[in-house]
Amino acid sequence: MTTTPAPPTPANVLTGKRRVAFASFVDENYLPGFLTLLRSLALSNPGVCEDFIVLHDGLRPASVERIRALHPRADFRRVDAAHYDTYAKGDQDNYLVRKAYFILDVFRVRDYDTVITLDTDMIVLDDLGELLRLRDGLAAVPQFFYGQHKLNSGLLVIQREYLSDAFCARIDETGRSGAYELDKHDQGILNAVLDGDFVRLDARYNYVKRRLSGDLPVPDTTAILHFTGRHKPWQGGEAGYGQAEDRWRDFDLSDADFHAAYLAAPGTKHHDLLVHYGTSHVRRTADPESARRVAAAHIAAGEYQEAADLLGSVRIPVDEAWPHEVLGHALMSVSRYEEARAQLLLATAAPNRAATAFSRLAQIAWIHGDDAAASRYAHDGLAVDPTHRANRLMRLRTQDAPAPAEGPADRQLAHVAFYMDRQGNAGDKLLPESVRLAFDRDTGPDRWHSVHAHRLFDEAALERVNARRGLVIGGGGLFIPDTAPNGNSGWQWNVPDRLLERIDVPVIVYAVGFNAFDGQAYGHGRGRFLTSLRKLVERAAFFGLRNHGSIEKVRALLPASLHDKVRFQPCPTTVTRQLVDGWKDPAEREDTVLLNAAYDRSGLRFGHDYAHFLAETASAVKALGTRAEVKCVAHSLDDERIAFDLRREHGIALPVIPMYDFGNDEIRDTYARTKLVIGMRGHAGMIPFGCGTPVISLISHPKMAYFLSDIDRPEWGISVHDRHLGARLAERAAGLLDDHPAAVADVHGRQRELWKVTEANAAELKGI
Hints:
- It comes from Streptomyces castrisilvae.
- There is one protein chain.
- This protein folds into four domains: 11-203, CATH 3.90.550.10; 267-397, Serine Threonine Protein Phosphatase 5, Tetratricopeptide repeat; 409-569, Rossmann fold; 583-755, Rossmann fold (3-Layer(aba) Sandwich).
- It is built from 32 helices and 23 strands.
- By secondary structure, it is of the alpha/beta class.
- Strands 3-2-1-4-7-6-8 form a seven-stranded mixed β-sheet, sandwiched between helices. Strands 11, 12, 13, 14, 15, 16 and 17 form a seven-stranded parallel β-sheet that branches. A six-stranded parallel β-sheet has the order 20-19-18-21-22-23, with helices on both faces.
């Protein structure tokens, strides 16, 4: 009997990323208020789109659809109304009194770390970032009339420790006993249970209407306006509050007016909201500029086919360069290269878009192996903007340089990899050589034929590969949707199925990783990726992934018949000491700790917690500074941001090591000579570990947790979202520094286990 494998561990469990949601109780009577609340939230916080839990006791299908039209991440959950009938109440027969208790069901939510409740008679007028960043306690605004001891329950910011059976039991006990202010309903129960033990928020976050009696204007500082009392704006309102109700009517909009207002709102837009509202707006208006903005949001999220479909559905005037450039970007990302060229050539006519358009034309030419054309396009782009980095790098990449003489084809292995440019990511720079070392001490052109993963694998490339002894694919996290996107495979190797099937030499997939971030998916291109992945596994003589987490993820995408082909092969950087000829451990180490942080896809890495991460890191750096010199090690240019931010926000100055400029020997030497590396990038952990150096991983991506699990040292990782990150990081680092010889010995012992796997796989590969 076959057993179904357990599903892969959810990414947020591995990264510790906080799950945040809004919540409201909604019924048909308060639906108009809730719809207005949703519109106000989107217009006042256009960059915020958390899940929205809609508690209800029965909504009509049409009402559900109206809510879904306003919020793409609405999550409907039915309240157990009978549960609250057991509570003692002041008026058991009043249906409004009965429903007032239903919001307490929010404390039964178990799948979020932070829940923010909003009454449906509220509107949002300003930024709620402070609430989203709260990490502790149960927060609320004190009641207007009752001083600081009692809270107003219209807005609650609830952390996980209150979303528990124990706290629900306290609520139930108080509700059933009647030992609370009965006429205050849910609010009375919470005040009785908490007895003043809550985090006090400024009144601007729950500014009650009664403060405006006499038709006073709403203060500019108000973030949330709460229409307390019997008379609601959608029911005709109440005399003496005209200016407040005018603010409510500002958000009582038709769908068309609301969508247009959202697109016109200042500030960065959240992908989900921009796509949700913008798509409807484009379908209604066929406006090319709106279509461009929505398509750009799709592209930023790796949704290239969706971008091409939407922008391709509208008529773009010839002289509107930006939409042509974005459409060209989308089309090249799904491998519709000729169509992309036409759009990008149109975009070169406008000076403000020409440099970017030329860089994409250069990229298309390079993908097709035409270095001369790529260089010309990059030159044209630099003529428009001499500072354009993509064009400058392409010119360097395609400079005339004699190709190294290759050995005889029958002595070579072909090697598909991501070959990093100058000033590129240090980890990716080291990877190809590390993979080759696992097969042969000679890593040069005499024994290896390089095939850049991002270039189109065409008939000529196929012929060259089939003339070699075999094909090695790896290493690196090649299974990711938004690095070098293409429509041929859906992952980093730009190989059409028909050519993959015609490779007739042994195919060895070696130490590849499944690198999708927490919150990242393959979207519309998933089917293309799944087909290509299956064909690759079927074709491979050896299919090794670099961690068991990737194995779980990939097996879940394959039929059961292929599961056993997916094997564990550690990243060769983790066994560097065993691979590098003549390796010698340093006799002495520098009294330094190297700190690395990563900023690509920072929203997926940090969520709402970047300020928390930075402050906690500053605390740890100050503590460690008494033991060793802390330096910033930058794998890529963007990694230097941690040094800038620590100095600007916390007055801490760190020297920066520009590892993106280093050669491979210098990378290894730098990591071998330090005492400890604290790294956020995968290879800021794996490379120093492979050099025998103790590591602590700042986990913002599942792959970090995967690696630490494989070496049975999960305690060497700390989530960037950890509430006590600074103290825990300082404590663990101090432990490794205080008994450094033991820490190094532990690294060596863990490495030996990975080397055993690598040696066993090498013995098997000799027979292929």
